[in-house]
Amino acid sequence: MSHRHLPGGVTVVSVAGEVDLRTADRLHAYLQQARRSPAEHLVLDLTDTPLLDSTGLQVLVNAHLYATAHGATIRVAALAPMVQRVFAITRLDAHIGVHPTVEDALLAALTGRRPGGGSDDGNGLGGNTAHGESA
């Protein structure tokens, strides 16, 4: 995993590998560490994440709840077909912004737009610095 802080209060976290029972706690801890402030918007680049199981989904739900409680958002980008399907089946895509590219997710985070052009309504489930960690 790695992350980079961008102007405008957005942190992009790149996740590599499967997020499952073995690795979900690591992702949870990494998301907490990567955020500069509670109001930081998060964009998760899932380009290299072929699998996200229920424990991984729970990490994202918890991150979403934390973000919305602090006036921020969490967005995911570049989902593999299997991960996209999990988001659709669980209807998590109705609460967490799902975007085809990281660039789309960044634009949405900075402008408050949801995929499809709507704006974030706050409902839900209740300086450029780079940092890295080998996966």
Automatic annotation (TrEMBL):
Native organism: Actinomadura namibiensis
Pfam families: STAS
Region spans: Disordered: 113-135
Domain spans labelled STAS: 9-109
Biased composition (Gly residues): 114-129
Protein name, UniProt field: Anti-sigma factor antagonist
GO MF annotations in UniProt: anti-sigma factor antagonist activity
Family per record: Belongs to the anti-sigma-factor antagonist family.
